[in-house]
Amino acid sequence: MVSLKKEIVNNIANYILLFLIFSFIGYLWEVVIKLITTGMLVNSGTLYGPWIPIYGFGGTLVLLCLKRFKKHPIVIFIASLLICTTLEYFISYYLEITKGMRWWDYSNYLININGRVCLEGAIVFGLAGCLLIYFVEPFLTNLFSKIPFTVKLVIVTIFIFLFVIDFIYTQYHPNMGDGITYNTKA
After folding, report:
1. Helices 2-38 and 137-144, packing angle to 10 deg
2. How many beta carbons lie within 10 A of that of residue 90, not counting itself?
3. Which is it for strands 101-102 and 112-113: parallel, antiparallel or unpaired?
4. In the chain, where are the structural domains located?
5. How far is CA 55 from the centre of its chain?
6. Cβ-contact 144, 9 below 8 angstroms
7. CA-angle at 23, arms to 21 and 25, nearest 5°
8. What is the average pLDDT across 79-92?
9. CA 32 to CA 13: how far, in whole Å?
10. How far apart are CA 59 and CA 184, in angstroms?
11. Which of 75, 109, 124, 141 is 20 to 30 Å from the Cα of 85, by its Cα?
């Protein structure tokens, strides 16, 4: 019974680490894109820390929903595209309604829906889902298995604490400004 509980806690810790790593990868992705397109070094996420949670949620959702379809890459691609694009659309809508700002705007992209999502991004999400399922998750899970259980729990606890503090702070002081948000109230 103790070993089963430990295995469950270990699996949850692994998913939390995956969420945090995907959030960090999303942060790096956005920083690099902004640097290339504007020449500015900008933290364009909703939070202040080096993480963008929508990437964490998207990647984790893809894993939780699609790992069982690993033998079907077309299903993984299309479902990842749909899951992440839907998530992006509704998070964009939620942020605009609750904060009066947009953190991204695809209105200038050829194929977009209300500037919230675009075909180019959707295709990237489909490819990223395949990359996660076939390469990233197996590699990271193998890496996590080498971390002693107690050390893993300490790491997860520290990062959850930092993430929650950042999340609470940004509920009152969102990360906004030039190169970060688009005012929808103007």
Report:
1. 130
2. 12
3. unpaired
4. 2-183
5. 1
6. no
7. 70
8. 98
9. 28
10. 28
11. 141
- Other C-beta atoms closer than 10 Å to the C-beta of 153 total 15
- Segments of 75-143 assigned E as strands: 101-102, 112-113, 117-118
Tokens, residue 111:
């194929």
Q: Quote helix, strand, coil % in the chain, to nearest 5.
A: 70, 5, 25
Coil, helix or strand at residue 182:
strand
Q: Say how far apart CA 34 and CA 170 lie, in whole Å.
A: 21
More confident residue, 94 or 184: 94
- Token pair, residue 122, equals 């959707």
Q: How far is CA 168 from the centre of its chain?
A: 18
Q: What is the pLDDT of residue 2?
A: 64
Type of residue numbered 107: S
Closest alpha carbon to 17 in 120, 143, 174, 107: 143
Tokens of 136: 């990233």
Q: What is the per-residue pLDDT for 183? A: 66
> What sign does the CA torsion over 99, 101, 106, 112 have?
positive
Question: Helix (H, G, I), strand (E, B), or coil: what is residue 104?
Answer: coil
